[in-house]
Write a structure and sequence with these properties.
182 residues, mainly alpha, 0% strand, globular
């Protein structure tokens, strides 16, 4: 086992462990700060995958922008609404949560199916673009970043966009006043 593999497993363990703390934590403030650790760990995994641009984007946009927005929403919300939200905890495994677990399991099966059956290097449009040399830009250009984002790093890029949407919805929900109905 070489150093890169050890670093990968360490970063993956940190990322998954902190994500579990975020998902199962009862303290909202601790969950927000562990979300920082999760996003930094994910950026470290992108660096190990040689996706430097995606890693920098992860840190600048999500850690620098979205989590600060969530922290402000948390700090601006009243103590009463936070106390009510913390009192209304339900067990994770219950009959009420069964549809969510089934949907999450179905999503996991679909994602694993896509990942294991996709042969990205043999897609017809990628082969055609490489054959006509339209996809071979000079290193270090904006064109190279665009091609990399739409070919090699499309799945991480889309996962980050879904995470951004979830973070925005969560921040809007946290910052909403208790009496106002949306």
């Amino acid at each position: 086992m070489n150093l890169v593999q050890i670093m990968f497993y360490l970063m993956a363990f940190i990322t998954l462990g902190s994500a579990l703390v975020v998902a199962m934590g009862k303290n909202l403030m601790r969950s927000i700060f562990m979300f920082f650790v999760t996003l930094f760990g994910l950026a470290g995994l992108y660096v190990l995958a040689l996706a430097d641009f995606v890693a920098v984007t992860q840190i600048v946009i999500y850690v620098g922008g979205i989590l600060v927005l969530i922290l402000f929403a948390f700090m601006l919300s009243g103590k009463e609404s936070l106390a009510i939200a913390q009192q209304q905890t339900t067990p994770y495994i219950s009959l009420k949560n069964l549809p969510a677990f089934l949907l999450a399991a179905l999503f996991l099966v679909v994602m694993l199916n896509v990942v294991f059956k996709a042969d990205v290097n043999n897609l017809p449009w990628v082969k055609a673009a490489i054959a006509t040399k339209n996809v071979v830009p000079v290193n270090g250009t904006i064109n190279n970043i665009g091609v990399s984002l739409m070919t090699r790093y499309l799945l991480p890029f889309e996962v980050i966009s879904i995470l951004l949407m979830i973070a925005l919805v969560g921040a809007a929900h946290l910052s909403r006043k208790e009496g106002a109905k949306a």
